[in-house]
Design goal:
By secondary structure, this protein is mostly helical. It has ten helices and no strands. This is Alkyl hydroperoxide reductase AhpD.
């Protein structure tokens, strides 16, 4: 299993991350599509080769073609949106920038090809990794209005946090090894 291989690559000092990988992915109560779409979109958002190499094949196996593509699309669109909205929100004149037309194509958000709430869940998780408060608020509101409870929203945050931490450790260890 990809998860076991990923855990085996973590050094002993990251034992908590091994345990958390098991908890947030291996023992998840999320439906398979929601879980593995989140895993894939978050793995892409980390940009970590080892994380992607271990988790992408299992995501491809467990997701239908449309869900697989939509999860990757969530990572792609949020890579753009998170930079744009985080930046305009951080500007001291953010109220005025919010009035301007964005001018960026985001059609995939309206027609992702999968259940809208799954796609929102993936976008929310990627936004957690990318640190965009405005996108987090926006996607969380859609999820909550769609009937997703706070505990389930928290699961997306936990998956994002653990995968980002795993990516950071593996990438740092690779850099230290030369």
């Amino acid at each position: 299993m990809a998860l076991d291989e990923l855990k085996s690559r973590l050094p002993e000092y990251a034992k908590d991350l091994k345990l958390n990988l098991s908890a947030v992915i291996g023992n998840s109560d999320l439906p398979q599509q929601q879980l593995w779409g989140t895993v894939l979109s978050c793995a892409m958002a980390t940009g970590s080769k080892p994380v992607l190499a271990e988790l992408e094949p299992q995501a491809r196996e467990l997701l239908g073609e449309q869900a697989y593509t939509a999860a990757k699309a969530a990572a792609a669109i949020m890579a753009m949106n998170n930079v744009y909205y985080r930046t305009t929100h951080l500007l001291s004149d953010h109220e005025e920038y919010a009035k301007l037309r964005t001018g960026l194509r985001m059609n995939i958000i309206g027609t992702p090809g999968v259940d809208k709430l799954d796609f929102e869940f993936w976008c929310f998780a990627v936004s957690a990794i990318n640190g965009c408060g405005q996108c987090l608020d926006s996607h969380e509101q859609v999820l909550r209005k769609g009937g997703v409870d706070r505990e389930t929203v928290q699961v997306a945050i936990r998956i994002a946090a653990v995968l980002q931490a795993v990516a950071s450790v593996l990438d740092a260890e690779a850099a230290l090894a030369g």
